[in-house]
Write a sequence for this structure.
């Protein structure tokens, strides 16, 4: 009844007998630690599938196969939301670390940053370190944080 799924990063599309069934598959890290991004991605998915004439079907939408060429753009837009760099505050909450630890580990290179965001008003510029969601997810999955704390304790 269903054929092989069409490959996307965050969308899953399977052909059934008469329709293409599309669902949004966000990583657990995003659902658990980035609720606003997950909500925005889900909202974008629903809005665009409804606009394309999709009808709710279980956890996804059934749509006409002729519309499938538009899914790549939706997947790309979801990726822009999900893969956006994280603020220091989000990183601290996700990793369970203090602001002091985050700043120290950023300074010494253990916690790499993305290109910095620069902004300011009335000519006063500042830079803000941002972090890759993939890096933070990797740190959650391994034991680097505990090891880094041990290193820091032994160097005092």
């Amino acid at each position: 009844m269903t054929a092989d799924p069409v490959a996307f990063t965050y969308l899953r599309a399977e052909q059934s007998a008469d329709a293409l069934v599309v669902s949004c598959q966000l990583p657990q890290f995003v659902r658990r630690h980035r609720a606003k991004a997950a909500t925005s991605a889900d909202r974008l998915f629903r809005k665009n599938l409804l606009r394309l004439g999709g009808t709710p079907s279980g956890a996804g939408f059934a749509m006409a196969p002729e519309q499938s060429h538009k899914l790549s753009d939706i997947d790309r837009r979801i990726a822009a939301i999900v893969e956006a760099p994280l603020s220091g505050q989000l990183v601290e909450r996700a990793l369970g670390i203090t602001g002091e630890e985050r700043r120290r580990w950023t300074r010494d290179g253990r916690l790499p940053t993305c290109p910095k965001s620069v902004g300011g008003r009335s000519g006063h510029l500042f830079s803000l370190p941002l972090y890759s969601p993939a890096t933070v997810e990797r740190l959650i999955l391994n034991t680097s944080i505990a090891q880094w704390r041990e290193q820091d304790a032994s160097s005092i």
Q: What stands out?
A: The helical segments are 28-33, 35-51, 71-82, 88-95, 99-107, 133-141, 144-154. The radius of gyration is 20 Å.
